[in-house]
Amino acid sequence: MAERSFHVARLPGFATMAVLVFIALYLPIFTLVAYSFNASNAVGVWGGFSLDWYAKAWANQQVKDATVRSLMIACFAALISTVVATMAALGTTRRQAFRGQTFIYVMINQPLMVPEIVTAVALMILFGLVKQATGIHGLGYLVLAHAAFCVPFAYLPIRARLEGMDLTLETAAADLYATPWQTFRRVTLPLLAPGMIAGAMLAFVISLDDVVITEFVKSGGQDTLPTYMLGQLRRQLTPEINAVSTMLLAVTVVLLTAFFLLTRKKD
Amino acid sequence: MSAAEENAVRRSARNGWLLSAPALVLLLAAAAGPLLIVLVYSFLSPGQHGNVVWDFSTGGWTGILWSKDIFTDEWVLADAHLTIFWRSVSLSLMTTAFTFILGFPTAWFIATRPPRQRALWLFLITIPFWTNLLIRTYAINEVLRKEGLINAVLLKLGVIEAPLDMLYGPFAIFVGMTYVYLPLMVLPLFAAIDRFDMKLLEAGYDLYASRGQVLRRVILPIVKPGIIAGSILVFVPSLGAYVTPRVLGGGKQMMIGNFIELQFLAGKNWPLGAALSMMLLIIVTVALLVYVRYANRDAGHG
Lengths: 267, 302
Hints:
- The complex is a heterodimer.
- By secondary structure, chain A is mostly helical.
- Chain A has helices at about 1-10, 15-35, 50-60, 60-90, 100-115, 115-135, 140-165, 165-175, 180-210, 210-215, 225-230, 240-265.
- In chain A, about 75% of the residues lie in helices and about 0% in strands.
- The longest helix of chain A is centred in the N-terminal third of the chain and has 32 residues, at about 60-90.
- The longest helix of chain B has about 40 residues, at about 5-40.
- By secondary structure, chain B is mainly α.
- Chain B is globular and about 70 Å long.
- At the A-B interface, α1, α2, α4, α5 and α6 of A face α1, α3, α4, α5 and α8 of B.
């Protein structure tokens, strides 16, 4: 039966096209990674294997600072967005639908709908006014901006986890005279943890990758790794950018693989 | 409903709001709220060196289409702006169409794999989706440039004698956007095809339909919600694209996103930039509302 429906579903040329699409999807990324190991500094000429560009990137103070800044912002943004997203997920699932719930959904998903450039401009104006009024130019603005657009990404896996959770365990805890806080702390939270970790990882990746909003919100000397790269792309390119990109790619792929394994449905 | 039950429902709703409050405050402060400031700024007058003067003016909005001639002081259609809008819309439409042409067979291929393999193929589509947009755009730059992969291969094969000049222009932007937004087309298409009942194909063939007829008359109408979702997911970010045209367009070939940046960062005309941002937001909202209405109507049918 499976064999037969598979045959019916075959459309000529589709498989070939799909394989070509997958090759086209990965070939540019592999090229970029390959050139990061290139000994020659001309971008198009292969001069043998070398780790020089990694050493150069590592020795570059600007890259180092930008890396630390990116990681710090991503950590704080992931932490804040996961906490508020977990609370919102607890507030919007497993209870009778209430007035205004749609509004909450729309608000949470709003960063996914509004074009990034519009949010970037809006935050530049608002934070510009605040910076002028208070004279404070710290990284807090970037953390706040990142935390906000990370909320929907943290919210989705947490909500999915909550909806799939068995209510009977919590009922059982309550029947055994656990207080609501004890039930939450000892039953709900441990069950929810994988969803929260998954949400935090997505938020981290999204924050680490952001270019547009960071580019508009940052004050002078607050480059993150992506905005540093964007600035470099205007100049003479060297494989150093490939080395930085490859490192950033590696972090993303590792986190995504972990996310994939964490949220995989058991067969 | 008894009084006690009513009380419980009210308490549950209140807890729902309380628990959602921190997220709402964060989003109001750093995502949704600031949009109102942009709306206000679009109705102010431009300052001498950027910023705004607090005088009411509709100049930002009229400036979208018209500009004042410096010599005659007459309002004339701003050709340069129209060129940028046309480039943005046409490139976004082309990107949407092309991601569909490439994405449909891909989604179909994934959906017809045995269940065990399917997760892996989906994962392979998702990785580029989550990877840094800037890195992917830069990767396309590596492929298209004069000394890039395509030119190197074509030169070696003797197909061309001099390297092709593909970078910095609408073509490069189109290739780049198709590349970076393709996963956004494939994922909803896959979701739609995955729900598709393959028995319908058998029925179609049993009734002597050709492959083309089955594709046109059976498959496409049923997966239409997926096509619409994918098209909106690709069209919306394409229209507001900033990074891809900046890296692959080479500065001269702007799209709306870069045009907005120019108004703010070069200190040219903040109210015009704010009005352009609002216009972009309105177009996107209309597209989403059309989609929601369509999706609801469709859900009602079946």
